[in-house]
Amino acid sequence: MTDPQLRLAATVVLLRDTEQGLETLLLRRNAKLAFAAGAWVFPGGAIDKPEIEAAETELQAARVAAVREVQEECGLNVAEEELVHFCNWTTPEGESRRFATWFFVAEAQRTSADVVIDDGEIHEFQWLTPQQALDRHYAGELNMMPPTYLSMRLIAHYQTVAEACERLKTRKPYEVTPVICQSDEGILCLYPGDAGYNIIDPELPGPRHRTLFTKQGTQYIHSGPDVSEPAMDLP
User: Fold this and answer.
1) Quick one: which of 231, 29, 96, 188 has its CA closest to 196?
2) What number of helices (H) and strands (E) belong to the chain?
3) What is the CA radius of gyration of the chain?
4) What's the helix, strand, coil split of the chain in %, to 5?
5) d(CA 107, CA 110)
6) Which of 36, 61, 41 is nearest to 117 (CA)?
7) Residue ranges per domain, the chain?
8) Is the predicted pLDDT of residue 52 greater than 80, yes or no?
């Protein structure tokens, strides 16, 4: 990590198999928080300094922090060796709080009856299938930031915990630092591979790799083979 303004963090997409299909746990952050207020997120948080100092690599520190954060935020357990790393998101430059976050997927080792939230930082939780979460997002009932939204779209391709973990083990993790800008369509996040990414010009002709924030929720746009980076929501 070269930027002193960046803080390392870890997030876990917790999964379980149910009669309704594959479900994932979402937590609603306190609407009064300075960062991601009111958003529905996966369990996670900042990596502590002692965890960084004790680890040989950032990935190892992220794994240790991921296990701790899941226990602290929702009372569930995950096995460190079963955490599957599948992407990294870094908060755009210019934001007052910036995180470089490791994203993992893993099976939750307890039932929803054992979820415990503190009613402080976290105010509510839901187990939902990925499609239920996406449908509620489009209906304006469930606010998800782009990393959560795109992770949910990716997980929606899998039917079981085992399939999700095995497939994501073989998928190359992607890394992305969005840039935020305004266009005639609304607010955009541009990603690597978008024609306007490097000069922050959303109108520049060429490949499109971005999310558009609309009244109907987040809209992910990947124009296809002309984009140098693969789509983040496909297996």
Assistant:
1) 188
2) 5, 12
3) 17
4) 25, 30, 45
5) 9
6) 41
7) 6-176, 179-222
8) yes
- The predicted model gives 163-171 an average pLDDT of 97
pTM above 0.90, yes or no: yes
3-state SS class at 152: helix
- Whether 60 contacts 53, CB under 8 Å: no
Who contacts 206 (Cβ-Cβ below 8 Å, separation ≥6)? 194, 195, 196, 226
Assess contact for 132 and 39: CB atoms under 8 A.
Answer: no
Length of the chain equals: 235
Matching CATH number, 6-176, of 3.90.226.10, 3.40.50.800, 3.90.79.10, 3.40.50.300: 3.90.79.10
**Residues 218/32/91/211 CA torsion (nearest 10 deg):** 10
Residue 161 pLDDT class (50, 70, 90 cuts):
very high
Cα(229)–Cα(174) distance, integer angstroms: 9
Query: What is the structure's pLDDT at 1?
Result: 44
- Please, what is the Cα angle at 225 between 221 and 228, to 5 degrees? 80
The two beta strands, 179-183 and 174-176, are unpaired
The first and second tokens of residue 174, run together, are 């992607």
Residue in the block written with tokens 């095995």: 166
CA torsion angle for 47, 48, 53, 58 (degrees, to 10)? 0
Nearest one of 47, 35, 62, 39 to 7, comparing CA atoms: 47
| Residue 145: CA count within 13 A, CB half-sphere | 18
User: In which element (H, E) is residue 23 found?
Assistant: strand 21-29
